[in-house]
Amino acid sequence: MAKPPVRILTRYLLRQHAAPLGFALTALTALLLLNQIAKQLGNLVGKGLPWSVIVEVFVLSVPFIVAMTLPMAVLVAVLHTMSRLAADHEITAMTASGISVGRIARPVLAGAAAVALCSFLLNDQLLPRSNHRLRTLLVDIQRQKPSFSLKEQVINEVVPGQFFLRAARIDQATNRLRDVTIYDLGDVDRRRIITSDSGHMAYTPGQTDLYLTLLDGDIQEVRRGEDAQFNRTFFHTNRVRVKGVSNQFVRTEEDNYRGDREMTICEMQRVVSSARAEAHAARRDANATVEQDLRRLAGLAPAPYQPRAPDSTTAGSSYCRLLQRLDRWLLPAEVKAQTPVPTPAPARVTFGVTTGENQRVDGARRRAAIYQVEINKKLAIAFACFVFALIGVPLALRFPRGGAGLVIGASVIVFAIYYVGLIGGEDLGDRLIVSPFLAMWAPNLLFGVVGLAGLWAMRRASPTARGGDWSDLRDAIVGLIRRRS
């Protein structure tokens, strides 16, 4: 029995898009990865790191790059494939056979929806883990060999918050220094500034501490509580030992801190729920404060204040509940020790203004907005695969002979508008100027409306109305300008 023509058409269209999609994704990812390598390689080579660590840095950068280039690849593939099919009159043959433009676009949009689902899983599951590992790895690399990371004419932070060093000249081959200034803030009871004409750096045998041999300089010291006394000591040779400076690459075994880009959607939803509960508790405390002040002014006895612990347990979305069920089904149950719950002490409400409570509410709202923006950002970037296909189909059918100029020009314009809107929307959403949903979904809504309008126009247009290239668009714009003038 012969296969239905509808299934044959669907498989044919999807097969035609597969190769351009793979090529575009590979080319765009490789291009951005090379740019990342060019910016980071100079900071990695020369620290004595094994090549496996350097390769791991760039491998961990791939998920973030793919998350950005996957929607781009979908648009490039749709523009290239649909314009080629239209230029070869295959679209004309399909419409002459009674197949509508909407039916032709349906498999393309369905494939883009499948790619969008894969992009969503990548953004939510793989990307946060890779971002966390990459950040931890870069922090570990920054602690490796500070002598090689020192820069001339710059105040270098050798020990965070405690020891700073500046040198006019640094010989990386011999570790010799010229015109050295050291700011020693390690002791809270005194502040020292050490200046030296020259010096030399060396590590202890265990390679955990740094020795500085300084020549011909002075030490300026001020002690806390003795502002009227200033000590200055001149020296010919001074040896300074800086403890806790490791010359070996040591990986961080466990890092529990995670930023918003290192969390899954379910983890960020829990943070949002906690921030909302905190804002609700702050409003309740503010109302209680006002009520107690009014009762005090009226000469009434203070009402007992019954604090309620914020409810941080939330049911979560259906997606999060599904993931929890999969975890329980696939992974063994974790055994947790029971910890006694302390009895909360009775809270006391301070009479007075509610400025502190208002600041708590504002801080909780801002924290919730940051994570809500990131949640909507993950969803919006994934859905962009579908939106780009929606706008690419009518654009390619309208200008089938556009060729490489259509693919490159339209892609650059769409990418620039979309990602500028995404970056600007993220800033506005974090600052509570617009809602997180509108901040992240505005580019998708804009291009979605344009794509639907273009697809509707192509369904109503006759086959002879198509077949133009970029010159048609140019002539139309020039004619419109001449009529207005």
Fold blueprint:
Layout: H1 5-44, H2 51-87, H3 90-96, H4 101-142, H5 146-149, E1 156-159, E2 163-171, E3 176-184, E4 190-203, E5 210-223, E6 231-242, H6 265-297, H7 318-330, H8 355-398, H9 403-430, H10 436-460, H11 470-484
Antiparallel strand pairs: 1-2, 2-3, 3-4, 4-5, 5-6
Q: What can you tell me about this protein's structure?
A:
The radius of gyration is 32 Å and the shape is extended. Residues 341-353 have low confidence and may be disordered. Strand 2 and strand 3 (176-184) form a beta hairpin. Helix 2 (51-87) packs across helix 9 and helix 6 (265-297) packs antiparallel against helix 8 (355-398). It has 11 helices and 6 strands. With 485 residues, the chain is of the alpha+beta class. The protein has a 6-stranded antiparallel beta sheet with strand order 1-2-3-4-5-6, with no helix packed on it. Among the domains are: 5-142 and 377-403 and 441-472, no CATH class; 146-242, no CATH class.
Helical/strand content category: alpha+beta
Total DSSP helices? 11
Rounded mean pLDDT is 82
Q: Write down the Rg.
A: 32 Å
The helix content, as a percent range, equals 55-70%
What's the helix-strand series? Answer: HHHHHEEEEEEHHHHHH
Low-confidence stretches: 341-353
Measured by DSSP, the beta-strand proportion falls in: 5-15%
> What overall geometry do the principal axes of the alpha carbons give?
extended
End-to-end gap: 64 Å
What order do the strands of the largest sheet run in, or round the barrel if closed? 1-2-3-4-5-6
